[in-house]
């Protein structure tokens, strides 16, 4: 009964896979926030180093991974892939369940897979400081770790809800030398404005992004970094799925269903895009399912139209599934999934029905997380429990239908810094929350961005 499928350092992929090359309908262009005309890559130059902008728009199918990046990856990569024998038994399912575990990175999630190359390309172009936002603290930690490695200063705007709930994430970032503000903060104009209007706000990723961008644009040697949503972030994460394909081959198996939790789409892209490549190149029909919170259901209940990536409307307009950039999600514990929009590539893939999406409420996902922890030992990040809820639903379907399908999911992070969330669950303090259709319609009705 083999449980673990391990690769060696030499098996770390040499290229990232760019799914844009294979998409039947390419993503629509970003639009200028004021003129609403399509913008070229140059418009992003104040925010990102040129190499990352090139990666944002390239149509090359493969992008080589620099040796120095592979070298840092080798601190924790390749990550293990497990067969969840115990979970299968608990669920009494004929399905075979596998998971790729990204919690073995120094920061405990998949985020360093992109933080390291982002810091690397900034370093190559002489950047001295990077600003960013963080929801649950995972991205801020990852960027702090990566910046520290390359001797770049790092400034993080952390959504206030998480700042208050997860003090040790802040200490972790401080350990790697980063400066951390609760967002909204008094360090930016937009932060001050929002604090004046809503002094008790718990913040949102949209607000934190606006603050980080505002702090970056005023200085030539300061740039901004985003931990999800953008094409280059998804590109970097594809090492996860490429490794997983090799490991599934070692296991003598191939997934029928690939599942990952969904915030902005990076861990979902990381695991699923290389499997979608098998659908494109080899005619396979692997189902890829994104799992989102019912409190922030942009894929299952949002609209596909142009919207801003941030609350203040400073980013380019992107064609995506969105709940509206003004939307402030309920303070649920899966902080990393509280984002109003979905990445452009994933949005187009969903529009074209090449992937699927489902939503779970917050009680259902904690139940799933605890079931997983009791069966497999690892305590999942609250974000990751959404994927587990989908795994359980699919395993139950397999049982009903008597099908021995193979399910693979991305356990994209551990929950060791999330004990407050688990404590609240055990204390019965987590109340079921679903965004109502009326609330969604009200938020979307406020949009005056171009429709598609
Ligand atoms: C950030 C994060 C997410 C959500 O972001 P994606 O870009 O959708 O992956 C999910 N899980 C964990 C553990 C995270 O840190």
Give a written overview of the molecule.
The chain has 18 helices and 15 strands. With 452 residues, it is α/β, with parallel strands linked by helices. It has a domain at 4-8 and 66-108 and 232-445: Rossmann fold. It has a 7-stranded mixed sheet, sandwiched between helices. The chain has a 4-stranded parallel sheet with strand order 8-7-6-9, sandwiched between helices. A hairpin with an 8-residue loop joins strand 12 (303-308) and strand 13. Helix 4 packs across helix 10 and helix 5 runs parallel beside helix 7. The chain starts with a strand and ends in a 7-residue tail after the last helix. The mean pLDDT is 95. It binds pyridoxal-5'-phosphate. Pyridoxal-5'-phosphate binds at residues 109, 111, 136, 138-139, 228, 261-268, 336-337, 381, 383-384, 412-413.
Show the helix and strand layout.
Layout: E1 4-5, E2 15-17, H1 50-57, E3 62-64, H2 67-73, E4 81-83, H3 85-91, E5 96-101, H4 112-124, E6 129-134, H5 138-150, E7 153-159, H6 160-165, H7 167-175, E8 179-183, H8 189-197, H9 205-217, E9 222-224, H10 231-237, H11 239-250, E10 257-261, H12 266-282, E11 287-293, H13 298-301, E12 303-308, E13 317-322, H14 344-351, E14 356-360, H15 362-376, H16 384-401, E15 406-411, H17 419-426, H18 437-445
Parallel strand pairs: 5-15, 6-7, 6-9, 7-8, 10-11, 10-15, 11-14
Antiparallel strand pairs: 1-4, 2-3, 4-5, 12-13
Bound molecules: pyridoxal-5'-phosphate (PLP).
């Amino acid at each position: 009964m083999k449980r673990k499928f391990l690769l060696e350092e030499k098996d770390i992929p040499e290229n990232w896979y760019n799914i844009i090359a294979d998409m039947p309908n390419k993503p629509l262009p970003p639009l200028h926030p004021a003129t609403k005309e399509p913008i070229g890559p140059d418009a992003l130059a104040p925010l990102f180093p040129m190499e990352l902008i090139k990666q944002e728009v390239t149509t090359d199918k493969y992008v080589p991974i620099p040796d120095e990046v592979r070298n840092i990856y080798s601190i924790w990569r390749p990550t293990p892939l497990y067969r969840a024998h115990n979970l299968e038994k608990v669920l009494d399912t004929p399905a075979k369940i596998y998971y790729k575990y990204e919690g073995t990175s120094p920061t405990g999630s998949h985020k360093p897979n992109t933080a390291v190359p982002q810091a690397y390309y900034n370093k190559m172009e002489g950047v001295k400081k990077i600003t960013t936002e963080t929801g649950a603290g995972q991205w801020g930690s990852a960027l702090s770790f990566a910046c520290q490695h390359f001797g770049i200063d790092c400034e993080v705007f952390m959504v206030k809800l998480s700042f208050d709930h997860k003090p040790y994430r802040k200490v972790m970032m401080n350990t790697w030398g980063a400066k951390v503000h609760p967002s909204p903060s008094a360090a930016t104009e937009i932060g001050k404005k929002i604090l004046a209007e809503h002094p008790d706000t718990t913040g949102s990723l949209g607000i934190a992004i606006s603050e980080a961008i505002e702090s970056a644009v005023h200085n030539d040697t300061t740039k901004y970094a985003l931990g999800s949503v953008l094409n280059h972030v998804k590109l970097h994460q594809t090492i996860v799925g490429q490794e997983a394909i090799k490991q599934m081959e070692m296991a003598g198996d191939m997934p029928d269903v690939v599942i990952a939790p969904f915030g902005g789409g990076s861990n979902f892209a990381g695991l699923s895009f290389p499997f979608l490549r098998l659908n494109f190149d080899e005619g396979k029909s692997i189902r890829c399912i994104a799992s989102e919170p019912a409190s922030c259901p942009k894929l299952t209940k949002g609209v596909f139209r142009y919207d801003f990536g941030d609350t203040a409307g400073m980013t380019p307009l992107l064609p995506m599934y969105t709940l509206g950039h003004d939307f402030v999600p309920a303070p649920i514990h899966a902080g990393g999934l509280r984002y109003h929009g979905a990445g452009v590539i994933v949005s187009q893939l969903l529009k074209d029905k090449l992937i699927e999406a489902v939503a779970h409420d917050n009680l259902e996902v904690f139940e799933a997380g605890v079931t997983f922890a009791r069966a497999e030992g690892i305590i999942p990040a609250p974000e990751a429990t959404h994927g587990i809820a989908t795994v359980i639903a699919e395993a139950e379907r397999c049982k009903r239908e008597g099908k021995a399908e193979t399910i693979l999911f991305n356990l994209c992070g551990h929950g060791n810094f999330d004990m407050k969330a688990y404590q609240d669950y055990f204390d019965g303090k987590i109340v079921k929350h679903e965004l109502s259709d009326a609330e969604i319609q009200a938020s979307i009705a406020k949009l005056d961005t171009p429709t598609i």
